[in-house]
Amino acid sequence: MPVDPAVVKRISLWVYEAASAFNIFYCITLSLAIKTSKNKSLPATYIYNMAISNALLVMFGIAVYILPYYMSDKTYKMYRDTIGPQISVGVTFLYLHPMLTLILMTINRIAVVLSMQASKLFTANKIWFYTSLHMIANFVCLLIPYLSECQINYDQRAVGFMSECAPKRHPITTFSNYYSVFFPFVAFFFNVLVIINFKLQRSPTYAKIKRILRGGKEDQFATTMPSDVLKAKKKTERMLMIQAFITAFYLSVYELTSLVLRVAPEIFSSLSLDGKMAFTYFRLAQIPCHVFLVYFIFTPVTRKIYLDFLRQRVFCMKPAKKTIKVSTTSTSTKK
């Protein structure tokens, strides 16, 4: 029985809409849960960056990909000519932000692996500073093409980003399109190395190699740090390692489809218009799942914080009572 592309398109759109609605709720409540949490070992700055940017990306995605579906061609033309370039810049900016934040997370991980003293360079305030820098650089790189004759404007009817100076594109746009796809793969590779390093920590041979690389010296910052503080920092770094790895893996899988389509564009071009839209909506439906997958499925600490927040703050339920097991021991006395 042949599959009707129009039916697949409608189903994929529903999936994307449902995932988007859930994502906005989840990202907002997750940010509030982290804000009200007393757990100081959380990499909160990275969580805020990922959650807020992902929620905004989904909102812009609704404006770019979902709303035009319900518009007539005439209405959509007016809509696209009026705010199309602006929301196209917005969706691209928010699409690149998690990738750049992932690169920062990876650098953070590598630096701490080399020396615990590097954690001083990645305090919450400094991470906000670094993310502000890459946000400014990202915005400038998108603003320059926007102000040129080669504006980028997404066309939902043609299922693609169109340049106003087609077939040409601004050099910055060309550079970004070509190289940004490799960001998650590079981050994934280095995060795998970090995990291998973590697994080898208990090996005496590996400890000797690290000592040789440091010139026979121990990590002074780690040895002079109080044990409770060191334990908390290691817990945070372990959590960040898992989150960076899952994020890199997830974004790599998403970008793999872009790489395949770039290598073999005839695969996409051979599809009907409904087929192209179905493929695009199914691919876009992965974006809202990113934050939920990383911070709920694969991070038990943030999952517990989030569920407690929902229970107490959203549904106004009493916190779960902790049961204390009392073990009774019988003692025998000799007479």
TrEMBL record:
UniProt cross-references to Pfam families, sorted A to Z: Serpentine_r_xa
Coiled-coil zones: none
Sorted UniProt keywords: Membrane, Transmembrane, Transmembrane helix
Family annotation (InterPro entries): 7TM_GPCR_serpentine_rcpt_Srxa
Keyword Ribosomal protein appears in the UniProt entry: no
Segments traversing the membrane: 13-34, 46-67, 87-107, 127-147, 178-200, 240-261, 281-301
Protein name: G-protein coupled receptors family 1 profile domain-containing protein
Record gene name: Cni-srxa-10
